[in-house]
Amino acid sequence: MSLIAGLGGGAPTQVAPPRENRSRAYRPLLAPGLVYLVLFFVVPVGSLLAMSLYVKTPGGDLGDYSPAFRWQNYVDAVVNFYPQILRSFGFAAIATVACLAIGYPIAYAIAVRARNLPLVQNMLLILVVAPFFTSFILRTIAWKMILADEGWVVAALHWLQVLPEGGRLTATPFAVICGLTYNFLPFMILPIYAGLGRLDPRLLEAGADLYATPFTCFRKVTLPLSMPGVVGGTLLVSIPAAGDYVNAVLLGNNTNTAMIGQVIDQRFFRILDYPTAASLSVILMVAILLLVSLYIRRAGTEDLL
Amino acid sequence: MADPGAALEIWGVTKRFGSFTAVDDLDLTIPRGEFFALLGPSGCGKTTTLRMVAGLEKPTAGLLSIEGRDVTGVPPHRRPVNTVFQSYALFPHLTIAENVAFGLRRKREKEIDTRVAEALELVELGGMAQRRPSQLSGGQQQRVALARAIVNRPAVLLLDEPLGALDLKLRRQMQLELKRIQTEVGITFVHVTHDQEEAMTMADGVAVMNKGRIEQMGAPEHLYELPRTAFVANFLGQSNLVRGNVVEVRSDGAVGVDVGGNRVLVRADRARDTEGAVLVGVRPEKITMLVDGQESSPGQNVLGPGVVTDVSFTGVSTQYQVDVPGVGVFGVFAQNLVGAATVALGATVRLAWSARFTFGVDGDEDVREGTVDVDCEP
Amino acid sequence: MSGPAATRPGARTAWRSRLGSALIPTMAVLGVLYLMIPIAYTVAFSFNDAGRRNLVWRGFTLDNWKNPCDAPQICDAFANSLKVGVLATVISTALGTLLAIALVRYRFRGRPAINLLIFLPMSTPEVVIGAALLAQFLSLRVQLGFWTVVAAHVMFCVSFVVVTVKARVASLDPALEEAAADLYATPFQTFWRVTFPLLLPGIGAAALLAFSLSFDDFIITNFNSGAFTTFPKFVYVAATRGIPAQANVIGTFMFVLAILLVVASQVVASARAKRRRG
To answer: What domains appear along chain A, each with residue ranges and CATH number?
Structure first.
């Protein structure tokens, strides 16, 4: 089932597979969109790939680069920035797990527990999607304020002795991961909700009829059947999280929380080191494509959309 | 030559989907004003044929002509044909009146409102004009679909299993309704169905289709009383087909067949083969059961003895199963004249019927052909 | 043989199952509260009597709401975001709808490749897309500004439009279009009078999605805007100096607007359903 349509949270209506047309009418329908995507996605990615191989123009100004095929750029990029690369994927992984831990129960509650209460379901769904409606930056800034040294969260943690005196939350990896988790939580909840929503409650009744306790029912019936949604949610969270840098900039510091997105941004705009920035982008993209291709290998391309 | 007196003519039409042949070299002529049924098991070419007539599929080979005009290459919106779809396909965003008026508006006809009102009256939905399809019941939607098609006065009206989604009582009612409307309006109806009772109730002419071909075509009574193939025999009700060998051919051409030691006579014009192995059958309602002491009448075929293995009271009749050893299991229908079964379970009986009701089909065929719903690919 | 006694749950299992039952709703409620906290903060601080730096609560005031454009450039940035949003929505919705119809209704070679091409922008991190477009604009020496931002937004919105509309097209009974053709409608008339009206809810949803993605986009915009400022970019840049409370006002305003839209559409949908049943 569609990975992304699950994001819309809607259960699909079951209709007989359509008789597919073999006429030529599809060409004018496809052409504008495809041309646009080729011009503004494929070609720029090509430019990026090309730029990642450029060299500094000898004797040129800052920001002057000449076309070349310097594959060494990639090696340099990895050698210089492997901490940030690893950290980006590490943070993304932790955030994904956190999203799963927090998001699965919420999705389960909405899809399964509130199944017979459509009003409650709708309300909960609106509340889950509501964060989308505030500006991404404002949400992250809000976290900065919540986790601020003067805030009540830090005060409470000091009082509970969880945080040592003088310890802080902002400008720490914890804050960055917190921000990542929060910002991508709906992306985890909606696909799982969509997947669980399609679960036939009669399967659970059959399980109970066959002597399974509620927990066993969950373990043996619900959990496996919800896996496609979980996988979808995992992809939808980890992919943007790995490349995100807003959380890192606003909630982190520049030493031990820098993520690869930040580095790319800096290299492009401050240091004007285009080839390095480009090669780092390509590395990021390739890593993610590997993840996605594993998914495609299992599910095929029709299910992507 | 294209015959303007015929509403629909199909010549050598074949439709292939990849390696699968859905319709195989079909020939069919339907006269004007007839209520014609295309009957056959699920998915075996009848709906594909209908769609080709409507223009929604293109034939791989062959010609289609409507009222003498070749329409093989003509797109559906330019054919004088309208369809009542199985799912009704009412436009959900339009009112009933707008639905019915749709075709008229596209052709820019005059007096649309009057004609729409007439059509709705015809299907007895006069007060529903301003409702939406979702507010109507299944039966009402079906009638709107019919009105929407009929109002355009097409040369041929196609119905794709339109009664399939209705419950039994409603279906019976609608069968009579459709027949009444067709007689009143005089348009040629081509009705596709897998329900043999439906086809026989409504149609003037029936073509039985199997695996993309027409097995037999004719008036319903004719098909029922004299099936020419095992498939037609078994599909149109029970046939009690059994194997036998031809042992004599009489001077009047009647064929004598040895069935498990019994002599069964088949009239000359009702037999397929006159030598070798054959299949003979008789319809269950033609059989009477003779208990001990009862004698058969002259001109009757007698089989037996056999044991009654099942008795089912269905209200209108009692249906028996009689197992004749060495021959097979026969179905017998006895009209309910006395309010109870007349023969008991386990009784030994002999089966007798008037020889003129026996029919014979090709001995090479499968006795069970047409009894089980063969799983055909769409 | 096990009899009725074997199926009666003991007292201990009953207590455990009741705890388990309560666990899920509790976690869900906590989770939803967690989601609401930053929103609550944002809304609350829009009423803060803050001055330049809106970090500590000073006092309640309606001034920010009365003068939302007081902070320099904030309304320009907001207006820019709206302009880009509307334009990008219109273009991407048109392109995406056509693509979706083609993908669902027609079979052709290269469909897997095209599916992949449409999927890729959604799975590529924004940093990479932004960088790629920037690389392209740099090598072509195109001036960064309004048009490069619009072009970028259209690009990443198209895929989401395709997905949303595709779901709607797939749920459209193809018999409806066949019925239209059967009733003498030319292909164009079929599209205009049957397909398009029935797709409209999906197209509307796709347009809303495209607009919200465009309005809220920061990373790609940041890479491709040069001196041109949109609302998220304004807030980000202001974060170092101190975000004016008016930003919270605008944020809250958009939030309330979106919630109202969602609730309104639910109300309309349920009213329509009730009319159907009645």
So the answer is: 5-21+74-299 (1.10.3720.10)
Statement: residue C242 has pLDDT above 70: yes
Q: Domain B238-362 - what CATH class?
A: mainly beta
Interface of C with A in 237-256 (CB under 8 A): 239, 243, 247-248, 250-252, 254-255
Interval A184-231: pLDDT, tens: 998 899 888 888 887 888 888 888 888 888 788 888 888 888 888 888
pTM score: 0.77
pLDDT-derived band of residue C58, with 50, 70 and 90 as boundaries? confident
Domains within chain C, CATH numbers bracketed: 4-63 (no CATH), 72-243 (1.10.3720.10)
Which residues belong to CATH 3.40.50.300 in chain B? 6-228
C-alpha to C-alpha distance for A63 and A275, rounded to whole angstroms: 10
Q: Which CATH superfamily is domain B6-228 in?
A: P-loop containing nucleotide triphosphate hydrolases (3.40.50.300)
- pLDDT given at position C246: 84
Q: What is the pLDDT of residues A245-263, one digit of tens each?
A: 888 888 888 777 888 888 8
Residue C60 vs residues B128, C42, C155: alpha-carbon distances, Å: 59, 14, 42
User: Which pLDDT does position C3 carry in this prediction?
Assistant: 44
Residues 84-123 of C with CB under 8 A from A: 94-96, 98-99, 101-108, 112, 114-123
- Burial group, residue C164, by CB count within 10 angstroms (0-12, 13-18, 19+): buried
Nearest to A22 among C107, C163, C231 (CB): C107
B134 touches chain C (CB under 8 A): yes
C222 contacts A25 by C-beta, under 8 angstroms: no
CB of B334 closer than 8 Å to CB of B351: no
Q: How many residue contacts between A and C have a Cβ separation below 8 Å?
A: 298
Q: Does A271 touch chain C (CB under 8 A)?
A: no
Q: Which chains are within 8 Å of C by 3+ CB pairs?
A: A, B
